[in-house]
Design brief:
Blueprint lengths: L15 H8 L4 H19 L2 H12 L23 H4 L9
Length: about 100
């Protein structure tokens, strides 16, 4: 007879026990991202996310003060004043 470990996988050419070793996945990064996303969502919901990020930025030396300059809102566009006659040309108006 034959040993199970000697049977080759048709797709890869590896022995079956080697295929099992390859397919074992390390899910540490997946769980880390899930926990990190959950923490960010909860802190954002509670309103403490920005304070925590500012504290973290101060610890690593990337914090910059918020911009406090007062800027006026830009005025909306006002088209130049034209004479009455040039606004609507009656020669091209479709009058019925």
């Amino acid at each position: 007879m034959f040993n199970v470990s000697d049977v080759y996988c048709f797709n890869t050419g590896y022995k079956r026990n080697k295929v099992k070793e390859i397919t074992k996945m390390n899910l540490t990064w997946f769980y880390f991202h899930c926990v990190l996303a959950t923490v960010i969502l909860v802190k954002d919901y509670n309103g403490t996310l920005e304070d925590a990020l500012n504290d973290f930025e101060k610890k690593i030396g990337l914090y910059t003060e918020p911009d406090t300059t007062n800027t006026e809102t830009p005025p909306f566009y006002i088209p130049p004043i034209q004479e009455e006659e040039s606004v609507i040309d009656s020669n091209y108006a479709d009058i019925k």
